[in-house]
Amino acid sequence: MTAVQPDRADTSRALRFPPGFVWGAATAAYQIEGAAAEDGRTPSIWDTFSHTPGRVHNGDTGDIAADHYHRFRDDVALMADLSLGAYRFSVSWPRVQPTGRGPAVQRGLDFYRKLTDELLERGITPVLTLYHWDLPQDLEDVGGWTVRDTTERFAEYAGIVAGALGDRVTYWTTLNEPWCSAFLGYGSGVHAPGRTDPESALKAVHHLNLAHGKAIGVLRSALPATARTSITLNLHQVRPASGSAADLDAARRIDAVGNRVFLGPLFNGDYPADLLADTAHLVDWEALVHGGDLAEISRPIDLMGINYYTPTLVSDGRARTDGPELPRNDGHGGGTGSPWPGSEHVAFHLPPGETTAMRWAVDSTGLYDLLMRVARERPDLPLMVTENGAAYDDYVSPEGAVNDPERIAYVHSHLAAVHRAIADGADVRGYFLWSLMDNFEWAYGYSKRFGAVYVDFASQARIPKRSARWYAEVARDNVLQDLPEEDGKS
């Protein structure tokens, strides 16, 4: 894989991306597929969670979602119409291996075979994620990610999918945002399975790291040499609210449990000493980490995915700090526990300025800073922005159009940040917009719309928003032009 460089002749009015830069959009299985009980699929933890009263806004579930399972051919045609070069999707573990054990259900695998074939026929590169949070409920019933056996089950599942799709798919991602799986699922309780125990969250994070490593070993042996393996992390661009020693230490703690808990074992084969010290009262790390685990986790990968939406502003909550304070679960809402083991005293703050419908600050400098950080730590490792986007209160006009200039301005500023990072030496190979279409937005249900394509969930009609048409032009031309005046500042 050869590093790509931007056109140094770019002007402020046209930022040209490197030849071969990948333009895509992303989704996740539970958020769009529907068909929750069809063709052998059994419940995942998100089926259970969403059907539990009070867990998801308005009692929404992913039972039907965007009905992609039945409409995938039309959706792929829409991707082609939008000039997408790649589509990042996830495989539903309980659709392929319903109990998380034993043989695969061929009907489940057939869906992904047909999907990838349709993509390839349209000239769209499939980018596959093995795990986007839909653990089979049967595995959660015997401990889920808190028990070591789940890492073995995941490796087995990875081998099943690789055996079925290895001849079609080049890009393979093990896990999407394991921070959310561990700390929102087992720490704060805002995500499935809804547990609120710091020890369980820390056990889950190690087992997710280990599952990644084991899966990489399986993929290396099962896939062609041309395959590219990766993991996708939602790294946090952590900033202290002030230069005080207390606030700097708050930022250090959140960086440890938000970023270095993954980057340490992945890059260096070790957990950071300060993280171990911060959490020693919560979990027995010596008993948790077995001999050989860290070597497994640090197996070489070909690519790293980075998801970014907003920076993280923190202070020591025991000291007075200016600025509105967010809930201690960092604005994810609804949970009673903390997703930050060993850092429960840290306060989160909303930075000044514009926000999205998620009440997340719009600040593209955070994406630039993250890309440059990883590029400095691992200059040999190619990167992709595997999720970036924004939710706004979209609606269909009387003329049948969805105008979303705020989303265009958001994506424009973040693409400019990606271009700047490439110009400054970061080896960024592609960008995936989150999301292709409106979907089931986890605990927010259908109340938040991230899609470039509007979905009327009652009729399942798809309406490309103005941002979709704008993004299609960027992808087609490989150039980011200045924004029209009506779409805000760049």
Automatic annotation (TrEMBL):
Biased composition (Basic and acidic residues): 317-331
Chain segments carrying region Disordered: 317-342
UniProt keyword Hydrolase present: yes
InterPro entries recorded: GH, GH_1_N_CS, Glyco_hydro_1, Glyco_hydro_1_beta-glucosidase
EC number: 3.2.1.21
EC top class, as a word: hydrolase
GO molecular function terms listed in the Swiss-Prot or TrEMBL record: beta-galactosidase activity
Catalytic activity: Hydrolysis of terminal, non-reducing beta-D-glucosyl residues with release of beta-D-glucose
Domain of life: Bacteria
NCBIfam families for the chain: BGL
UniProt similarity note: Belongs to the glycosyl hydrolase 1 family.
Official protein name in the record: Beta-glucosidase
SUPFAM superfamilies: (Trans)glycosidases
Any single Pfam family the record assigns to this protein: Glyco_hydro_1
This protein's record includes keyword Hydrolase: yes
Record lineage: Bacteria, Bacillati, Actinomycetota, Actinomycetes, Kitasatosporales
Organism: Actinacidiphila acididurans
Keywords, alphabetical: Carbohydrate metabolism, Cellulose degradation, Glycosidase, Hydrolase, Polysaccharide degradation
